[in-house]
Amino acid sequence: MTRPVRVLVVDDSATMRSLIAAILRREPQIEVVGEAADAQEARAKIKALDPDVLTLDIEMPGMNGLDFLDKIMALRPMPVVIVSAMTEKGAAATVRALAAGAFDCFPKPASIAAIREDTVLAQIVLAAARGPARASRPATRAAIGAVASPGAAAAGRYIIGIGASTGGVETLLEVIGGFPVDCPPTVIVQHMPAMFTASFADRLDRFCPPKVAEAVSGTILRPGHVYLAPGGRQHLEVVGASAPRIRLYEGETVSGHRPSVDVMFRSLARLGRPAVGILLTGMGADGAQGLLEMRRAGMRTIGQDEATSVVYGMPGVARDLGAVEHQLPVHRVAQVAMELAV
């Protein structure tokens, strides 16, 4: 859009509202049009101000952020960025909000100095304004329905690697929800703050047929299991061709991220076992080069298509590089992945 992105900041803390607004006002393409302390005030200001994007706190007096988000997505779908406390309770609620249709999340900072130096929130808000608003699509095991198993032999040979970023929570619920209970061992790198990945792994485990857990270094990969890289702390790679296992290690960011999808894909490219690489919605280019290395190594690759991506960044760059063998809408990713893993 040519005019500035209009943002309404919703948080029960006056201090936090001021800090968030100050961050956003540093970006010339953003105009903070108002602030609200609770859902009731936010509802009135949405009607009066018609913002393009909402930043939303989870824990607020009266109607909490989750209930308010549900109403927004049902009655007036619009891009919502969750700004959440880095606590176990806050992380679990944020993952629920992302699954319910929120665009992305931003962790509340540990200090005022940290938030004043941050530029990521403005980038998320700008991406939210460009992306589609999404209505809630709650996932359940019964509603998703797993595709056919590739068979025990194939599940034992193949490894599936998946990378995702913005929009990945809802997308991964749909993709992994379509995996059979005895799927090939699967590793996932989802860009997400450190506190949030354990809650996300728990949510995937509750709603998807395979067993899903946060990855632990040294774990031997097993069919029917999905391993989610811990957020923000370490890179994940798969090592050991005869008995593949997870290796987590500290290191500098790669392609702007830690964990990096590129690191995970490159480890699969050099592992010496058949694999399927899947690159889903997300900002930036992380995973594109790694997926290209997988394809050059003779492995199968899938990229999410533009129409179903919340942000067609990572899979779009991969397509332009020639890394994508199959470009698919999200509802076909699980099926085709199982067909390729034979």
Automatic annotation (TrEMBL):
<dbReference type="InterPro" id="IPR001789">
    <property type="entry name" value="Sig_transdc_resp-reg_receiver"/>
</dbReference>
<dbReference type="InterPro" id="IPR011006">
    <property type="entry name" value="CheY-like_superfamily"/>
</dbReference>
<dbReference type="GO" id="GO:0005737">
    <property type="term" value="C:cytoplasm"/>
</dbReference>
<comment type="function">
    <text>Involved in chemotaxis. Part of a chemotaxis signal transduction system that modulates chemotaxis in response to various stimuli. Catalyzes the demethylation of specific methylglutamate residues introduced into the chemoreceptors (methyl-accepting chemotaxis proteins or MCP) by CheR. Also mediates the irreversible deamidation of specific glutamine residues to glutamic acid.</text>
</comment>
<feature type="active site">
    <location>
        <position position="191"/>
    </location>
</feature>
<feature type="active site">
    <location>
        <position position="165"/>
    </location>
</feature>
<keyword id="KW-0145">Chemotaxis</keyword>
<dbReference type="InterPro" id="IPR035909">
    <property type="entry name" value="CheB_C"/>
</dbReference>
<feature type="active site">
    <location>
        <position position="286"/>
    </location>
</feature>
<dbReference type="InterPro" id="IPR000673">
    <property type="entry name" value="Sig_transdc_resp-reg_Me-estase"/>
</dbReference>
<dbReference type="GO" id="GO:0000156">
    <property type="term" value="F:phosphorelay response regulator activity"/>
</dbReference>
<comment type="similarity">
    <text>Belongs to the CheB family.</text>
</comment>
<dbReference type="Pfam" id="PF00072">
    <property type="entry name" value="Response_reg"/>
</dbReference>
<dbReference type="InterPro" id="IPR008248">
    <property type="entry name" value="CheB-like"/>
</dbReference>
<protein>
    <recommendedName>
        <fullName>Protein-glutamate methylesterase/protein-glutamine glutaminase</fullName>
        <ecNumber>3.1.1.61</ecNumber>
        <ecNumber>3.5.1.44</ecNumber>
    </recommendedName>
</protein>
<feature type="domain" description="Response regulatory">
    <location>
        <begin position="6"/>
        <end position="123"/>
    </location>
</feature>
<keyword id="KW-0963">Cytoplasm</keyword>
<feature type="domain" description="CheB-type methylesterase">
    <location>
        <begin position="153"/>
        <end position="342"/>
    </location>
</feature>
<feature type="modified residue" description="4-aspartylphosphate">
    <location>
        <position position="57"/>
    </location>
</feature>
<dbReference type="Pfam" id="PF01339">
    <property type="entry name" value="CheB_methylest"/>
</dbReference>
<dbReference type="GO" id="GO:0006935">
    <property type="term" value="P:chemotaxis"/>
</dbReference>
<dbReference type="GO" id="GO:0050568">
    <property type="term" value="F:protein-glutamine glutaminase activity"/>
</dbReference>
<dbReference type="GO" id="GO:0008984">
    <property type="term" value="F:protein-glutamate methylesterase activity"/>
</dbReference>
<keyword id="KW-0597">Phosphoprotein</keyword>
<keyword id="KW-0378">Hydrolase</keyword>
